[in-house]
Design a protein that fits this description.
about 0% helix; 5-stranded mixed beta sheet; globular; mainly beta
Length: about 70
């Protein structure tokens, strides 16, 4: 997935993502709200090459991004 500016990620919420088009896989992380399993989201890259990893809890509708590297 590619976006124009990585600063825009802070405004992306669970409901702004099309989860049918975003690759996901199991994660070892547990949700800090409900304790349920979280899914790893495909890395997001902006046009400057900055990469972010994401994790999501579909039960709580929580989405977190972390800068990679």
């Amino acid at each position: 997935m590619e976006i124009d500016d990585s600063a825009a990620l802070m405004y992306y919420t669970y409901f702004m993502m099309n989860w049918g088009e975003v690759s996901q896989g199991p994660s070892a992380a547990r949700c800090f709200s409900c304790g349920g399993p979280m899914m790893s989201v495909e890395p997001v890259r902006d046009k400057k090459g900055v990469v972010f990893d994401g994790i999501v809890c579909h039960k709580c509708k929580t989405l977190l991004w972390t800068r990679k590297g």
